[in-house]
Amino acid sequence: MAFVLRRPLAISAAIKQVPKSSSSGCIRAFHKTPFKKSPNASFSSKPSLTATLARSRISVQNAFRRNYMQQPYQVSRPNTGNLKQRLLYGSPSVNEPVGAGIVGGTLVGINLLFNRETREDGGMPPYERSFLNETFLHTGLGIGIIGVAARALHQSGWSYRLMATNPWAVIGISLAASIGTMYGTFATSPDNYIQKYALWTAFNLAQAAVLSPLMFLQPALLARAGLYTVGVMGSIAFVGATAKQDKYLYLGGPLLAGVAVVAISGFAPLVLPATAVRTLMWTENLWLYGGLAVFGGVCLYDVQKILHHARLAERGLITRDAVNESISLELVFLNIFIRMVQILGMRNNNRR
């Protein structure tokens, strides 16, 4: 019946190919039973009835042969998506993705919007510049340790064991290890540099252990996500460094509330049932795009806080500690990087 619905004219075409002399015995060919010879048949004047039935059977098989071949699945091109998908994930009809242009335009817009009032004290003092450079040096070193350690753990099979573990156990152990080593680093004096750098290295290794499953993704995608993250953080850090003193320090309270909301939305898939599709979709968008906005503001706040601490350290009110300041920037980098990876992965899936 399925064959008839797909090709309604196949049977009629097959019947037309059968000779008229074999119309009486054509039905028996479908049952695979031997045809009994008639004693009154004259084989000298008419062709063999068996050969006629064989030709009719071949014609019917030829008529239905193409129906066994499934049609290839046609994947719709992503350029048929709506305007939001084209802006976020790029258009495959052009060589250069639109997403890169959106990121670049966003960076320029951030600079023009938030950096209208620059410093009026003649530029950044040398002690602020040196402290900021030292902090970014430790941030880059920490990110490098996380990347190398995550790659080594992935090659040793840690990623497979981590993904097979209970997610609640992974969350609990990772939070305990990260928070414990982070506050241990904060509490250690910069003079005790061996213990401080040991705890700081342990903090980076804890982050690498959690992020090692990202190595399952394509290296090109991870490299692009890292490049975009460096561009976003670099532009925001430039805005924070060249803005007026303490201009964005008031954002600490609202940003803390935003981080709490983003963190709670990240736990939604572990708590909500799978049937709450619309709620899960909203929490996913809140975690993804809301997290980008929140952690971009945290980066702006951290840069201004670093400069503020540099001025306090110059006056002798606090101890100069670039390691503690770098941990905050590392966390911001990792959160933005993870979201960039997810956005680029969604873009690649829409292209297929």
Q: Would you kindly provide a written description of the structure presented here, covering whatever features stand out?
A:
This protein is mostly helical and 352 residues long. It is built from 14 helices and no strands. The two termini are 34 Å apart. The model is unreliable at 1-33, 35-47, 63-80 and 87-96 (pLDDT under 50).
Which SSEs are present, and which pair or pack?
Elements: H1 2-6, H2 10-17, H3 49-64, H4 83-89, H5 98-114, H6 126-155, H7 158-163, H8 167-187, H9 193-211, H10 219-242, H11 252-266, H12 268-271, H13 277-314, H14 322-351
Tags for this entry?
single chain, 352 residues, mainly alpha, 14 helices
Mean pLDDT: 75
Sum up the overall morphology in one term.
elongated
H and E string: HHHHHHHHHHHHHH
Could you tell me the radius of gyration in angstroms? Answer: 34 Å
What is the terminal separation in angstroms?
34 Å
Q: What percentage of the residues does DSSP assign to strands (E)?
A: under 5%
Question: What's the main sheet like?
Answer: none
Spans of at least 5 consecutive residues whose pLDDT stays below 50 are 1-33, 35-47, 63-80, 87-96
Number of helices: 14
> What class, by secondary structure content?
mainly alpha
Binned, the helix content reads 55-70%
Total number of β-strand segments? Answer: 0
